[in-house]
Amino acid sequence: MAKQEFWFIVGSQHLYGEAVLKTVEKRAQEMAKMINTYRELPAHFVFKTVVKTSDDATKIIKEANYDDNCLGIVTWCHTFSPSKMWINGLKLLQKPWCHLATQYNQEIPNQEIDMDFMNLNQAAHGDREHGFIGARLRINHKVIMGYWKDKNVLHELSHWMRSAIGYHESSQLRVMRFGDNMRNVAVTEGDKVEAQIKLGWEVNTWAVGDLVKEMKKVKKNEIDALMKIYQHNYDIKTKHLDLVRYQALEEIAMKKMLEREHCLAFTNTFEDLYGMEQLPGLATQHLMSLGYGYGGEGDWKVSALTHIIKKMTEGMGGGTSFMEDYTYNLVKGKEFSLGAHMLEVCPSLASQRPRIETHHLGIGMNQKDPARLVFAGKPGKATVTSLIDMGGRLRMIVQDIEVVKSPYSMPNLPTARVLWKAYPSLQEGAKLWIMAGGAHHTVLSMDATPTMLKDLASMWGIEFVHISKDTTASQLKAELDLYDLAWRR
Asked: How far apart are CA 94 and CA 401, in angstroms?
């Protein structure tokens, strides 16, 4: 993100004279410089200009739209900035927008306050005028209110910036599908044209035979080099190194195709391995650890979402992965969900150094036992997110969970797995998830918060459902009924 920026645009007007405007600009520069030092910010925070006229607003917003390094704008009205002057510019805005409602001074200066001070420090006045035009224009945007030096304000701003990074990544994302979807599965389907219109994704298919051709071009020294990386990152717990090398062969070929087509997410399915000896397991897991998105059984929506959330949370350190709900523990007081997949869970979630193992996979067209990473997930608060096609609209569903240290050794389960408590409880949480239409494929993230994901959904202009410890069935049913009315257009 070294070149990426968020532009700080401050509102005022000529009413107060040049001396006041110089003070406004000086303070705005000071604020931007200080905010930019906050260590959680994922990109640069840059002061751009003081908007004083309608032409100023239109000009700077046009510039923001066409600057590839600008990921969004943050506006604030130091003085009274009449909102009509922002209309023409904001109508053109194509980047995420955050309204930072703050003021330069933290407290009212009891002895010094006079009319000059009042005329200069009108954020309480200006920000409400500015807020009205955002509401009147019905533009989805973020409002953050509080003192600009407070850590909670800067923390909220940094998380919104991460959502905007996800929005930017989405706008240029390409997804490579190796083959089609698993047959007869509903939730992995969807309207790819609508997804490109709404989210920016280009989702296309390449034949598995094309991948097999690419695999035949891979050289021995390339496999040797990747094997050294595997040995450095993981413990190899198998004597069948030929099967591990085959995964390296698959990874190298997939990565070459992904890079050539500028794709950062991919799918495959165990039902279509034409010409391949193993379903990519270790290969997929290692590619996810590099930031690629993945979706099993041809699930291109979760594949794209995995990459986007990985990009949003880059550097946060918790981990994000493609995930699938497998089975429950329904013993009273010990209710858990076990998440896993046949092979493909990202090692960023691992609680210990992952092991490379080879085992029989009793599903699909595998000729030989696929190599995969085996580990248990690390404990901590997390979210699971599903993106579903409701027919004419998209719905993002987010559930709060807590990953726990597994009390089960599961010695005969040769796959990476994560055990978690669902909120408000497993029984209620699963029911609410099913009511909302949530898929069995999700993105599990130890970093992405519900607020970050809600902001991303707002930027996309899609429906958002949050299942938390306080959500009830009656509340969710009413919410879903309202969504059906509001989004049926």
From this structure: 34
Residue 401 to residue 425: CA distance in whole angstroms: 9
CA 375 to chain centre: 24
Distance CA 431, CA 446 (A): 23
Average pLDDT over residues 283-306: 97
Residues 275 and 279: their CA atoms lie apart, in Å, by 11
Band of pLDDT at residue 1, cut at 50, 70 and 90: low
Q: Where are the beta strands (DSSP E) in 231-389?
A: 235-236, 265-267, 293-295, 320-329, 336-340, 355-358, 371-374, 380-389
Token code pair at residue 334? 């010990």
Any idea what DSSP says for residue 274? T
Under a CB-based contact definition with an 8 Å cutoff, are residues 250 and 283 in contact? yes
> For residue 489, what pLDDT is reported?
57
How many C-beta atoms lie closer than 10 Å to residue 218's C-beta?
Answer: 17
State the maximum Cα–Cα separation within the chain, in Å, rounded to a whole number: 83
Is the sign of the CA dihedral 43, 49, 52, 55 positive or negative? Answer: negative
Q: What angle do CA 106, 110, 116 make, to 5 degrees?
A: 85
Provide the token pair at 303: 């594949």
Token representation of residue 208: 């598995």
Buried b (16+ CB within 10 A) or exposed e, 118-138: eebbbbeebbebbbebbeeee
**Cα first-last separation, the chain:** 37
For 448-473, how does the pLDDT look when each residue is reduced to its tens digit (9 = 90+)?
Answer: 999 999 999 999 999 999 999 999 99
Helix (H, G, I), strand (E, B) or coil at 403: strand
Per-residue pLDDT of 213-272, as tens digits, reads 999 999 999 999 999 999 999 999 999 999 999 999 999 999 999 999 999 999 999 988
